[in-house]
Each structure stands twice: as structure tokens, then as C-alpha cells.
Amino acid sequence: MAKRVTGPEIEKLIQLLAKVPGLGPRSARRAALHLIKKKDQLMGPLAHAMGEAFDKVKVCSHCGNVDTVDPCTVCTDDRRDQSVIIVVEDVSDLWALERASAMNAAYHVLGGTLSPLDGIGPDDLNIKGLIDRVAKGGIREIIIAVNATVEGQTTAHYITDHLAGLDVKITRLAHGVPVGGELDYLDEGTLSAALRARTAI
């Protein structure tokens, strides 16, 4: 059995950091040690920022984005073309597309993809919210920007079928997104090209 070299508070910090995507146990220990060494300059402000985020962060009731206001900053931005909605799987995909600055449109976050094997059906995603937004009118184009995975393609087909007859143009990402690729890992140039080369379904 390994000997303990730190108190339970530091061990808990390491264990929690290890749960962050991209950080394993070794990386979490290095991150924790760095935070402890920079206690005043980094750990204190980080703890304060996390406390504020915990208290104020909420999910936008309109599009599913995360922000500190509801409706979110994207939904209330008058400079955006609210008649075009980019449909994404997750908030990380929304942020990736925003980094690319390829389009100034609205968004709709599904919260995942259809996956019968994992027990994720249409009612587990924000698909009804999208259909309701389109049914209200004023939407001229839906850009389906889901990942090029089997689940992503299944979700895209499901959405397309349920938007049929609602007088809206439906397009999807094209060139630049590899099969099996995930939006959050693509560079801005690839995302920009994919949005510009979208095709009708």
C-alpha cells in the first residue's frame, strides 16, 4: 500500500482535478502542486472564480448554451442573424465554431446525440426545442453541425425528418470535417471551410 505524503485536503484536490477531461492522475498531481506553489496568485483567484461560476452559471432556456444570463449572450445579440440556426451536439462545439468566426448566426445545443445502445433517445435531447423554434416561424435555414460519427449522422437524419414540411432550408457541414472527427478538436480554418461548403440534405 502506497504511503500518503499529503493531507486529505490536497488528496481531495488531486482527485477532483483528475476528473477534468485531459487530466489524468499524474497531470492532476502536477496541476495541484502548481496551484499550491502559486497559492496567492493563482489558487485564490481560481477558487473565487469557480465559486462565482457555481453560483451564476445557468443553461440558456432558449438555445441550451451556458452563460451567466438567461437568455444567453448569443441569443440576445442583435447583430446575429437569428433566422439561421446552427445545431450542435454540445456547448464545446458552439464555442469551437465561435472561435472560427465563420458565421454570425444563432445556435441550438442538443445536449448529445441519439444513441440507442446508451439508452439516449429523442426525449433525452433538446430536439423538441429546436422543432418548436422552427415551427414559430422566422427561421430560414438550419445548419446541422453535428460530429461526423454514426450517432451524429443518425441524429442529423432524425432532425431532418422531423423538420420536413416546416418550410426551412436544411444544410449540413461538408468539406473539412473528417468521418469520425469531433468539432472541438478541429482547427478554425477547417471549421470555417466546413461551414462555407455546407450542402443541402
UniProtKB/TrEMBL annotation:
One of its GO terms (molecular function) is DNA binding. HAMAP family: RecR. It holds the Pfam family RecR_C. May play a role in DNA repair. It seems to be involved in an RecBC-independent recombinational process of DNA repair. It may act with RecF and RecO. Keywords: DNA damage, DNA recombination, DNA repair, Metal-binding, Zinc, Zinc-finger. This is Recombination protein RecR. Residues 83-178 form the Toprim domain. The keyword Zinc-finger applies. It comes from Ciceribacter naphthalenivorans. InterPro entries: DNA_Rcmb_RecR, Rcmb_RecR, Rcmb_RecR_Znf, TOPRIM_dom, TOPRIM_RecR. A zinc finger (C4-type) spans 60-75. The gene is recR. Belongs to the RecR family.
